[in-house]
Amino acid sequence: MRKIIAGLFMSLDGVVEAPEKWHFPYLNEEMGAAVGSMQAQADTLLLGRVTYESFASVWPHRTGEMADRLNGIRKLVVSATLEKAEWTNSTVIGGDVVEELTRLKRQPGKDISVSGSITLTRALLRAGLIDDLHLLVHPIILGAGRRLFEDGTEQRKLALADSATFSTGVVHLTYQPA
Fold first, then answer.
1. SS (H, E, C) 2-63
2. Burial tier of 91 (Cβ tally within 10 Å: 0-12, 13-18, 19+)
3. Which H/E stretch holds residue 71?
4. What's the pTM?
5. pLDDT (tens digit, 9 = 90+) per residue, 2-12?
6. 108 phi and psi, to 5 degrees?
7. DSSP code of residue 66
8. C-beta separation of 26 from 34 below 8 A
């Protein structure tokens, strides 16, 4: 059975919003290898509408290994408002997303990767659909911004499956459902 693997860059105070504004000073070969490993396990990229629109405005115009990977991979966009996805290999899914993703997990293929997509990741956690949650915790306090776990988030136990510390001070934590 395929797995849904979510990966997010996170500050020490739990902010996951707009990593393009604070993440890059911490990007090195170690982190690149970790992110690359997550991506290599997947043949489908699952995105929420906001992340999709952000990625689709940038990656089709870039070249290189990461651009080639993102431009070539099958992309599923979860949205109740987007009618059509123009980026190559993109399909919009709406309606009963939990049912659709549960069905997709049963199909043959590699894993399904979720990148960013805060609202989608929260919904997938609530539905119990995330098999691996990768948090790359950066040694920075931002003080403001959207956090993955908001006040009032339903309690959910997770088990630490793996951890690694990079030379930049970033800690890569991998959690699975307990």
1. CCEEEEEEEECCCECCCHHHCCHHHCCHHHHHHHHHHHHCEEEEEEEHHHHHHHHHHHHHCC
2. exposed
3. helix 65-72
4. 0.91
5. 999 999 999 99
6. -65, 155
7. H
8. no
